[in-house]
Structure formats: C-alpha cells, structure tokens
C-alpha cells in the first residue's frame, strides 16, 4: 500500500467520514489508489519497506521515540526532505496482516480500542512535522471532526472505534502535559555518504 502524508485536511476527512468530502478533497486522503506502474509516493508501510543503507545513514534511520505507528511515515518524510523519494513498486509482494501485531483489528470483533502508543506516535508525528502550534490546530480539527463522525455513526447505527474520541482528547497536544516532545533519537550512527 502507498499513502499520502497525514495533514490537517486528512485528519478532518478521517474524522467526519463523509464520502462527498473525501471525493472533493481526494488529494488529501491518506490511503492512495495506485496504478500497476512503479511511481513515487509520500510513504509506504514499514512492513514492506526496503531502504538503502546510505539513505538510512544520511537521515539517521528510524526515530526510536516511536514505539509503533507513524515511524515509517516520519522516516519517509525525513528522507524526502533530504532529497530521497519513496517509491511504490507494485511488482513486490509482501503479506502484511493489518493490526495483528497489536491486536487492534479482528474480522469477527470489528475495530478495537487503539493503544495509547498509537496516540503518542500520532502526537509526536504532527508536532515534529508541523511544530507544536500547528499540531494543536490539527488536534482541534481532529477532535471536532471526529465528534461529528461519531454522531453520524450513531445515527446510522454503526459502532465507532471504542473510546476513540476520549483517547484522542486524553493524548492531545492541547493538554499542556503532552507538549514535551523529546528530540530525535536513533542508535544508527549518521555517517557521511561514500
């Protein structure tokens, strides 16, 4: 799978979950519809990623402040900023069963409550990428749009992801205690390119 970088608009779209908005703002929807041709994209799933050692050394590898989630998004964004594009290659084949490592999805049970580290990674990604002030705005938009989305789901008789709105508010960068963002950390030694 290939993706666009998360943004303020993508947070709005994922919160409200209204098809008309997603169609109008399709260029901001995070999951991308890809063709059968190799092409650049913003980021790809870390479970199916190959990266040159020289690129990893140049950008410092993965940020160890992420436990799970958003770490590959951050890596691909830093790579792009350093001049290294990410490519989607449809000929490659990798089986990745979504959520099996963390047990957040299941065919029979539906969506489960997201772990706290998902929210912590999300908060870190937006703060590191856009700065604390814009991350705060993104959280305001996320909370408001998700509130509308929860109401919509209730009216349609659908069950939302358990505690999603409450957990987003709890882990939001809007809370002063959540504003300390540790600096980049990697055990990979940055070395000059050969």
Description:
The structure is a single chain. With 194 residues, this protein is mainly α. The chain contains 7 helices and 4 strands. A two-stranded antiparallel ribbon has the order 1-3. Strands 2-4 form a two-stranded antiparallel ribbon. Helix 1 (8-16) packs parallel to helix 6 and helix 6 runs antiparallel to helix 7. The mean pLDDT is 91.
Summarize the structure.
By secondary structure, this protein is mainly alpha-helical. The protein has helices at residues 8-16, 19-24, 53-59, 71-81, 116-130, 132-155, 164-170, and strands at 2-3, 39-41, 43-44, 86-88. α1 runs parallel beside α6 and α6 (132-155) runs antiparallel to α7 (164-170).
**Number of E strands:** 4
Class of secondary structure makeup: mainly alpha
Main sheet attributes: strand count, strand direction, barrel closure: 2 strands, antiparallel
Q: Alpha-carbon distance between the termini?
A: 31 Å
Unreliable segments (pLDDT under 50, ≥5 consecutive)? Answer: none
Strand order of the largest sheet: 1-3
Number of domains: 1
The helical percent reads 40-55%
Oligomer: single chain
Q: What integer value in Å does the Rg equal?
A: 17 Å
The general outline is: globular
Number of helices: 7
H/E element order: EHHEEHHEHHH
On the 0-100 scale, what is the average pLDDT?
91
Q: Name the beta content range.
A: 5-15%
Describe the secondary structure blueprint for this structure.
Layout: E1 2-3, H1 8-16, H2 19-24, E2 39-41, E3 43-44, H3 53-59, H4 71-81, E4 86-88, H5 116-130, H6 132-155, H7 164-170
Antiparallel strand pairs: 1-3, 2-4
């Amino acid at each position: 799978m290939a993706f666009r970088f998360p943004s303020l608009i993508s947070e709005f779209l994922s919160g409200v979950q209204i098809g008309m908005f997603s169609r109008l703002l399709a260029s901001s929807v995070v999951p991308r519809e890809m063709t059968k041709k190799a092409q650049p994209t913003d980021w790809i799933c870390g479970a199916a990623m190959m990266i040159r050692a020289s690129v990893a050394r140049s950008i410092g590898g993965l940020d160890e402040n992420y436990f799970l989630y958003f770490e590959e998004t951050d890596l691909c964004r830093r790579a792009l900023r350093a001049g290294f594009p990410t490519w989607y290659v449809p000929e490659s084949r990798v089986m990745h069963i979504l959520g099996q490592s963390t047990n957040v999805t299941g065919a029979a049970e539906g969506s489960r409550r997201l772990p706290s580290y998902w929210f912590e990674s999300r908060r870190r990604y937006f703060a590191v990428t856009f700065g604390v002030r814009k991350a705060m705005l993104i959280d305001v938009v996320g909370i408001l749009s998700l509130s509308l989305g929860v109401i919509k789901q209730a009216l349609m008789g659908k069950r939302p992801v358990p505690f999603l709105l409450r957990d987003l508010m709890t882990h939001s960068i809007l809370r002063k205690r959540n504003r300390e963002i540790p600096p980049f950390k990697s055990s990979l030694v940055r070395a000059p390119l050969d």
